[in-house]
Amino acid sequence: MNKPLKLIKIGNSTGVILPKEVLARLHVELGDELSVAETPSGIELRPSDGDFEAQMAVARKVMEKRRLALRELAK
Known about the structure:
two-stranded antiparallel ribbon
């Protein structure tokens, strides 16, 4: 499944059409949301989990606010 994907213009944005095989492997369909994450091996697409994304947003705020305390605890 190493087929190149072509970028297309969608309004003022750029998009890509995912083959049906990719959608099936992700267990998503038209209208679903995907989450994009950068990993050491590249970019990862996965089905979006709204609850998880909301929890991570809160965790990021706490980590930023308590950065020094967390750094000390990590020692």
